[in-house]
Amino acid sequence: MRKLIILSVLLSVLIQAEGFTQERKKTPALREQVYSQLARAQQLVDAGDVDAGLRVLQEVERKQSSMNSYERAMLWNFYGYFNYGQDNVEKAIFYFNKLVEEEALPLALEQNTLFSLAQLSLGQENYDQVLQYLTRWEQLVPQEQQQKGWVLKAQTLYQQGNFPQALTAINQVIQAAVKQAQKPEENWLILQRAVYYELDQMEQVAGVLEQLVKHYNKPEYWVQLAGVYGQLGEHQKQLALMEVSYQLGYLAKESELLNLAQTYFFGDLPYQAGQVVAKGMAEGVIQPTLSNLQFLSQAWIAARETDKANEALIAAAKLSDNGELDAQRATLLLNNERYQEALSAARQALEKGQLRQPGMMHLVIGMAELNLENFNAALQAFAAAKQFDEAQQLASQWEQYAEAEQQQLESLQKLSDVIRSSS
């Protein structure tokens, strides 16, 4: 149960009433007998005897026909706070509404209650009622004191989906604060950002996020701003902001680190992409899933880090049920003149199977054997490769080349034997 503050509210209103009633219908006096009963009910409730406090209120209510409007208003005020303290918001609204329908209220009491009714109605998602209460409240409050009402109105209009008017209201609040050289409150900027987002005004979203970064410097604002820069096509700003966020330790989630790595990769910085992913995996933030390991291998291949790419492909291949990643590894190793390793990877790829272009693996085997001067093995591999459409033409060319190389080597061997025998 919320702690009730009825007596303090009552005293506050009594203190303010005199100054606020000069231009209004005179407020009747609150008699001591009524005040003492309300105070007694407050004491019982504060002591934890809610039922006894409620019985005292009911005794007062039975005499309402003999009470003046101000005394009834204070009774409804107590009931309102009592029900609010019991988490019965609908009943609290009912009694606060009875209060503002009484005549000759102190201005402060009417102002405070109308604003409370607007807030409670917002919580109940009764948006039309919120705006009605705020309209009445604005008629009682000088314009220079209406800022908090603009915020509530902006929130309500946003919830109604009336984004243009919500924007007008929240901009009014923020502009008033800036004019007075005050920092806009964080929740104002968050609401303004949300409205601009709903209106698909992404440049303005970026501007608001820049203010949130400047004034409140939270990690999520840096990350969100970088994302918006990306949507706007401002990739240099996006990358710069993400780099700073990374250095500050603001990128702590797997998705954030992968986003940074992808930004590096597509920004022609594959080595940095590989570093981010490898470090994230080492720290347990990025999971070594098949897709993440594939991306890591692509980054290392693009960065010409053969050993690291090979390790990533080996790890990824263990998680795959086909030979495609072993095939990639075979091609990588062949291109880097690591022929024995290329042979092993290509054979593993063929053994695992389900290859899109199996003929290319026979071709890789043939080229690796050829470079190792294993001509017969190379010719056998090229012959196998010729059975597949995707490798037929290349295999025929390499077969001819291998035969020529073999003949040349055999000729040289014969010549060497003749020279040796004649000496």
Automatic annotation (TrEMBL):
Pfam families registered for this protein in UniProt: ANAPC3, TPR_16
Gene3D superfamilies with a match to the protein in the record: Tetratricopeptide repeat domain
This protein's name: Anaphase-promoting complex, cyclosome, subunit 3
Native organism: Pseudidiomarina indica
